[in-house]
Amino acid sequence: MQLEVNITGKSFASAAGKRHDVLDNVTFTLNAGEVGVLFGPSGCGKSTLLRILAGLDGNYQGHVACSPGMRLGMVFQEPRLLPWRTVEENVRLATPHVDDSTLSALFEVLELTVHRNHFPGELSLGLARRVALARAFAIEPDFLILDEPLASLDNALAGRLRDQVATLVASRKMMTLLVTHDLDDAVRLGDRLFFLSPRPARILHVETITAPRASRDEAQIGEIKRQLSQLDLANM
Ligand SMILES: Nc1ncnc2c1ncn2[C@@H]1O[C@H](COP(=O)(O)OP(=O)(O)OP(=O)(O)O)[C@@H](O)[C@H]1O
């Protein structure tokens, strides 16, 4: 499985009829087993890019090529659960044929076992995000898109969820693309970090982290973050 992204332009028309350029030149490939991270300022076009990659917006210049039959899983900041369905029903709706052992294992990793029969209204944001993750993983995706899955959670919760995401990502050889504003999350989860410019977005710098995710220790993570924080992105 491989994803080839070669976007050369994307714009929207403003209400006044003026052209609003959102993406400039975004070119990269992502291979099975890799976690790519999109890291860029607010409003630079990350969600717009994700929508294109998910096939939800075909109105752009360039091309995106992916392996045929690729299964896509998506997790948004907003968990988007059906309020009148239980946790388990929400997950099963996406994958009616998922077997019980797969589902139980997923709920176990995400610490959702005791919440199987709860309704979304009974869940905190962190729990609801975990359900959204379970739903995305239950379909056994080839390409997983995570749009700021750790945003607005307190540090302890975000850290736990990050570890759970790392466990799940390691359990399956798929392509993952994560959007985050947090350099720490990017360095702990990512294999290749794409630093984007302000709108219209282009890739300013690509950082490849060769150390396997599971073996990155605090000293390595700190050193990578230190080096990245010294990049002069404003002048690239
Ligand atoms: N459907 C649309 N019509 C017009 N303009 C849009 C549309 N969707 C996004 N935009 C504009 O495109 C720009 C990029 O938005 P986008 O949501 O992709 O940025 P982002 O990098 O994901 O932002 P954030 O980090 O704050 O979530 C913004 O200026 C936004 O107003």
TrEMBL record:
Swiss-Prot/TrEMBL keywords: ATP-binding, Nucleotide-binding, Transport
GO molecular function term, any single one: ATP binding
A Pfam family recorded for this sequence: ABC_tran
SMART domains, alphabetized: AAA (SM00382)
Domain (ABC transporter) ranges: 5-223
InterPro entries associated with the record: AAA+_ATPase, ABC_transporter-like_ATP-bd, ABC_transporter_ATP-bind, P-loop_NTPase
Function: Involved in beta-(1-->2)glucan export. Transmembrane domains (TMD) form a pore in the inner membrane and the ATP-binding domain (NBD) is responsible for energy generation.
Entry's family note: Belongs to the ABC transporter superfamily.
Protein name (record): ABC transporter ATP-binding protein
Originating species: Bradyrhizobium septentrionale
